[in-house]
Amino acid sequence: MSGKIPVSVLIMARNEEEALPRCLQALNDFEEIIVVDSYSTDKTAEIARRHGARVEQFTWNGQYPKKSQWALDTVQTKYDWVFLVDADEIVTAELIKELKKTDFSCAGYFVRGRYIWNSKMLKHGLVNNKLCLFDKTKLHYPTLDDLDLTEDWEMEMHYQPVLKDGFENERLGQIRAPLLHNAYADPINWEAKHQFYARWEAGMILKNAFPKDPSPLREGLKRVFRGLPLRGALMFIYSYVFKLGFLDSRAGYNFARARARYYQMVSEALSASSKEAVSGAAVHTSHSAPQKSQPPLEQKGRMRA
Length: 305
Hints:
- The protein is of the alpha/beta class.
- 37% of the residues lie in helices and 21% in strands.
- The chain has 8 helices and 11 strands.
- Helix 5 (187-207) packs across helix 8 and helix 7 runs antiparallel to helix 8.
């Protein structure tokens, strides 16, 4: 026995030469590492191979499946168990230790993320909890009505994989050790990406097109939160006060403000979409409403030349 974790790691990448080395260096304890690239124009593929990872190339055709599900369907892996890791994420020693003790008796496991913000690992505040370790024969990413919202975005957006038909009663577990997420390495790119994410989320809310979360509790909380006013302010209070983000000093404050800013972006996108819908409806009404008949010009007191 090699002593390595019998899981195939899948890293979705595109022009990730700066972040990828740290990500790959933390994955030596896994049996298989595959970087799913999109014909990067930088050294992403070269770096992946240098670290012993296999590289598979993906070209999106503008339809479903998107990149992650394409990889689950198409890329040959040594194991059915896969761990989807982003290039800007770092697997910790604590996470490795816990995975080596995991019996993999569930269909999949949520992995709790810890943010790195302004070069500091946050110990408090909002955490990300994503279903990224799972048996690919039992879970998949659903097809959504969002192709008109995602422009040329080849990746699945911010939603969880779901249990496939026939596996609805399978259990989902929770990994406690953290997965680090270096979310703010590029502040300018962060702002641009989150503007895009916000427009997508607003469109999904208006369409009521979100897939059901695998966790009933999370699903209920998400539905309530999406309908609340002042979500930006509420998220700041939740992250900075309720989740003790203030204990992370300035970094915790800045992170809470960034989360609040994101939900402000969503609200702005919702408002803009609503105004466009009203404007479009008004234009349609003015063009389609029957016109009142007008008397001939001479009957209105005007003389023809």
